[in-house]
Amino acid sequence: MDTITSRHAAPLRRLTALGAAAMLLASAACNDFLDPKPTDVLTPENFYKTASDAVAAVNAIYEQTKWSYWLGFWYISDIATDDIIASANFGSDGHRMGDYTFDPSEWPLGDLWGNAYKVINRANAVLDRVPAIAMDTALQSRLLGEAHFLRANAYFNLVRCFGDVPLIEHEVTSLQGLDVPRDPAADVYALIVSDLQAAAATLPVSYSGADVGRATRGAAQALLAKVYLTRQDWNNAALTAGAIIQSGQYSLLPNWKDNFRIADEIQNSESIFEINYDGTLDPGAGSVHTLFSIPANFPGGDAYGLMYIPPSLQAIFDSADTRGEHGTFMISGRTVDALGDTVTWAMPPGPAFAKYLDETNTQNMNTRAWASQDNDWIVLRYADVLLMYAEAVNEGGPEGPITKEAALNAVRTRAHIAPVGALSQEAFRDSVRLERRREFVFEGQRWFDLSRWGLLDAAIRAKTAELQTLAPGETTVHGVPSNLMPIPQSEIDINPKLTQNPGW
Known about the structure:
The protein is mainly alpha-helical. It has helices spanning 9-27, 30-34, 44-47, 51-68, 72-79, 92-99, 107-129, 137-162, 185-202, 217-230, 234-247, 289-293, 311-314, 362-366, 382-394, 404-414, 425-439, 446-453, 456-470, 489-494, and strands spanning 3-4, 85-86, 271-275, 307-308, 329-330, 335-336, 342-343, 352-353, 377-381. It contains 20 helices and 9 strands. It has a 3-stranded mixed β-sheet with strand order 1-3-9. The protein has a two-stranded antiparallel sheet with strand order 2-4. A hairpin with a 5-residue loop joins strand 6 and strand 7.
């Protein structure tokens, strides 16, 4: 039950303020400026001295990870898929991503790349410097485990999007250290696996008090299972996901929509790792995906109506599926607001997202505003572990604590749809893939699933064909240049050693 809470921002803000104050003090007097002392400014050499310094440094990794998921990530992971249609309210960037007509200059690519490497450099600094601090060894080991986990997560997002990427394992302290070529994806994955194995060996099963929300052993294991699944290492994927199931540490929530209930975000049985946003304690740093996805002018505050779900997605939800209407999406004239009034809208022109509108939360329903929502971004939850296990076993991985059918059916039964019986390998594969789509709409999963399945081109061809009926003239029918994103042009411009992915 992990999340990055707003408390992680506080040490970073204090650290930033301390550094700024020290710089101002150093320049206040001419003599001081001409004869500076090492202690006049906060530097890595005089900062990494105490256990408190080590904790603050790890907190800073969490803080940067928060920004990694704030906006650009889901432009790639969800908007650039067949789950989302850009409405007329969306800007040109949203349409280019949604239509798959973007190029290497698109800002979400640079945002994901830049934020990931900021996370990596902060993690590298911790891994390089914290071992030398004289401090409690148990705390030191835990902090290093957290750094390993967060670095692995950043590299995993990079390598899944871009393939070969620069592999930087130590803190960069000069501009020359950034002038590096791309390394083979296999080498990047090897570091990710090593990081996650180290994290799983040192992180605790759970936390209490103010530490709730940090990466746990289960988070490291779940991310490792996803890495193995992405690499089609079915044996290790099944074994790792099976170990999480066997542990009994997590369970599905009875009500699927409760995964997105703000009051229970940090401490529920299904949550494994989340990015926590708190617009009250951390003003200007709350989440924005709620505002983007609900219909324009929805009562209760800001609502942009930038996107909607296509008919092809709506059609995969059975009428009894609790993840369908009033779960994943809402329909104009069949939705009510906080006062019980029926809500209608013209934008978007189809079913809008309901997933991130928490009807039990006063702020969500009455005072929504830019960057002020407390809705988390879920990176890993137990339903994902069950479906990863089912997929891996079906593809040849060893069956462990439960059958593949039991794992898949647990997710289906929770959603109030009928369980599957004995199926062929191909039919079961199709069922798992369909269930992943229904379960994780707009949760940062779809693009990565389509890419690893080799179905991205087919999905975008189907989407662009559907777009011709929904928004004539929006785009032609086309596929994708490759199953990878383009390397950001801004990075190629400043680093001549980088090369572009084929097709872009």
